[in-house]
């Protein structure tokens, strides 16, 4: 299980390069960690590493729920934080996205883990004190 330690957002950007190389498309990737752990920060740099957009153009999908990068779409970035019910989850049309040839990054996917594809990646970001983060890549 690959494990990384980051002491700054800049180091997380470098780690993203390494993680990006581990995950071929298509893939569903659950980004797990507390509020402010750095899920969106990592996602920005994964999107850039996969060549779908520059990191500065990647913003949190907290309110918009789904962002798409690339033409055709190479990376979807999804945030389920604001969803409460399975009916809301199903309303998003994620089945089609999961079946697409893209990489799909999902924040707060653990809220609907039972509905996510079994064949997926989990990136867990443990937020210790200060800027330190422990980033673990695994499969369920
Ligand atoms: N080592 C680090 N790696 C990543 N981010 C860090 C690190 N140290 C500090 N930070 C800061 O922590 C914050 C993480 O915010 P980010 O939006 O990425 O978290 P998140 O997990 O997506 O939060 P949310 O649960 O609200 O979606 C940023 O302000 C970032 O600069
Ligand atoms: Mg976020």
Low-confidence stretches: none
Structural classification: alpha/beta
Bound compounds, each kind once, are:
adenosine-5'-triphosphate, magnesium ion
Globally, the shape reads globular
Whole-number radius of gyration?
14 Å
CATH level 1 class label: Alpha Beta
Helicity range of the residues?
Answer: 25-40%
Figure out the total of helices. 4
CATH topology: Rossmann fold
What does this protein structure show overall?
The protein has a single domain (3-138), classed as P-loop containing nucleotide triphosphate hydrolases (Rossmann fold). It is 26% helix and 26% strand. The protein has helices spanning 9-22, 39-49, 86-91, 94-98, and strands at residues 3-6, 27-32, 66-69, 75-79, 103-107, 121-127, 133-138. Helix 1 packs across helix 2 (39-49). Bound molecules: adenosine-5'-triphosphate and magnesium ion (MG). Residues 39-40, 60, 79, 107 line the site of magnesium ion.
What is shown here, in short?
With 140 residues, the protein is α/β, with parallel strands linked by helices.
Index terms:
single chain, binds adenosine-5'-triphosphate, globular, 26% strand, alpha/beta, 140 residues, seven-stranded mixed beta sheet, binds magnesium ion, Rossmann fold
Spell out the blueprint of helices and strands.
Layout lengths: L2 E4 L2 H14 L4 E6 L6 H11 L16 E4 L5 E5 L6 H6 L2 H5 L4 E5 L13 E7 L5 E6 L2
Parallel strand pairs: 2-5, 2-6, 4-5
Antiparallel strand pairs: 1-7, 3-4, 6-7
Helix pairs in contact: 1-2
The chain binds adenosine-5'-triphosphate and magnesium ion.
The site of adenosine-5'-triphosphate has 18 residues, from helix 1 and helix 2.
């Amino acid at each position: 299980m690959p494990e990384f330690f980051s002491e700054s957002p800049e180091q997380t950007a470098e780690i993203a390069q390494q993680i990006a190389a581990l995950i071929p498309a298509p893939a569903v990737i659950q980004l797990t960690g507390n509020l402010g752990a750095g899920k969106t920060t990592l996602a920005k740099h994964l999107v850039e590493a996969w060549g779908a957009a520059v990191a500065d153009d990647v913003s949190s999908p907290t309110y918009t729920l789904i962002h798409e990068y690339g033409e055709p779409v190479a990376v979807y970035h999804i945030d389920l934080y604001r969803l409460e019910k399975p009916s809301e989850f199903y309303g998003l049309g994620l089945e089609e996205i999961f079946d697409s040839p893209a990489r799909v990054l999902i924040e707060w996917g653990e809220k609907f883990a039972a509905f996510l594809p079994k064949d997926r990646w989990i990136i867990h970001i443990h937020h210790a004190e200060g800027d330190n983060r422990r980033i673990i890549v695994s499969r369920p």
